[in-house]
Structure prediction request, 103 residues.
Amino acid sequence: MGHEPLSNIGVVCDKCASRPQTKYAEMPAESFVGAHVKLAFATDSDGLRRGYKWEHMWVKVTATYGGNMLVRLLDNDPVFCTGVKFKDAVFFTTDLIEDAMHV
Prediction:
């Protein structure tokens, strides 16, 4: 993951974009430690002007915090999300996971 070439980034319509999956919300948070999961991030004003509401990116789960809360490191370079950057740590819950690898 990490620093991907811009040619590897695509745009999909909102109806076709990933959505959080119930099966991940029902799994214990600990089962995601060490895995990569996909989450949606709200775009910045430039992204909104271009018609993009969400940027879907992969993150690596590094730890759990307080039960259902996960700590993750952003494993992509954001294009339209200026509030986060590669390797930033952010908290989220399992009900926001859209996809997972190596769970």
